[in-house]
Amino acid sequence: QVQLVQSGAEVKKPGASVKLSCKASGYIFTSYYVHWVRQAPGQGLEWMARMNPSIGTTAYAQSFQGRLSVTSDTSTTTVYMELNSLRSDDTAVYFCTRGNWNYRDAFDIWGQGTKVAVSS
Amino acid sequence: EMVLTQSPGTLSLSPGERATLSCRASQIVSSSYLAWYQQKPGQPPRLLIYDASSRATGIPDRFSGSGSGADFTLTISRLEPEDFAVYFCQHYGRSPPYTFGQGTKLEIK
What we know:
The complex is a heterodimer.
Chain A: E1 3-6, E2 10-12, E3 18-25, E4 33-39, E5 46-52, E6 57-60, E7 68-73, E8 78-83, E9 92-100, E10 106-110, E11 114-118
Parallel strand pairs in A: 2-11
Antiparallel strand pairs in A: 1-3, 3-8, 4-5, 4-9, 5-6, 7-8, 9-10, 9-11
Chain B: E1 4-7, E2 10-13, E3 19-25, E4 34-39, E5 46-50, E6 54-55, E7 63-68, E8 71-76, E9 86-91, E10 99-100, E11 104-108
Parallel strand pairs in B: 2-11
Antiparallel strand pairs in B: 1-3, 3-8, 4-5, 4-9, 5-6, 7-8, 9-10, 9-11
């Protein structure tokens, strides 16, 4: 079935980097955008970035410019998100999600989420 | 940048009642690129409505979306026990950024 499976939980110290993975299966990987969205504890959803796996182009939210990098590997149908210079307010659950052109790019499939804790 | 404001923050209703959730945008939402998601504790969001009023595959018809311009509504006609959750609206489309509202918590009265 169509799914996105994310890597496991991470605990990092302030100033460190974290790299998360999101493996897609059950659909044509290069035909759909993949986005990253995060959710701080008890808070709402924050869009972070978009990857076009077909041509490798990305778009980032302004608030993450310079410390966020999203890449993809078509051979393994995996999208990666690396966030640098971590701060305590980066503690959140990070989701990858698919933008489906059948729904005019609304986000129809979501990964299970990866919890990232940033603490000294 | 688009700001989406949802109201109320919390809605307390009983099963069988009708729920009306509001999402107001700070700018006109072009081409009705407005979606609604449902999120239960410990789960990722689930797409309910896209293009302001179209139900995603498998979504029960008690869920409906309406509105245009800058004012949008999600209506749940008769609440089932499994409908109590947090609901988010979102502006999406071809051009980022993609903005979410702050959410409405629908709780059992």
